[in-house]
């Protein structure tokens, strides 16, 4: 499922792609307690564990970095394990691309592919809710970066 492109400022692309594992827990600790690299060096093939904050409906999820393009700030990653997948999903694959706009900004284009277990059928509302949560995190991070322009240079 593709989500409509979201406009972001150009200086937000690099930290959102290359340093999200540090940025997310710093900016929204009430949602994400920590993101730890549990296998690899943080590049392609690495496995990260996302630990959700106390009181969240989920405890953790692991994702694998499938592709990371530092030149055009795009990446692909897959949720491969954890209670966020519940009993319905084998995995969720995400593709995130930041593209320049004619106005001088950039837009975020995200595609997600849900791989269900056995005969499970996901409702469109469930997919939309998951994508909306992910996009909301990007918006919060963007707001932080715009309010703190010296945070990443």
From TrEMBL:
It holds the Pfam family Bet_v_1. Residues 20-148 form the Bet v I/Major latex protein domain. GO terms for molecular function: abscisic acid binding; protein phosphatase inhibitor activity; signaling receptor activity. The keyword Thylakoid does not apply. The keyword rRNA processing does not apply. One of its GO terms (biological process) is defense response. Keywords: Pathogenesis-related protein, Plant defense. One of its GO terms (cellular component) is nucleus. Belongs to the BetVI family. This is Bet v I/Major latex protein domain-containing protein.
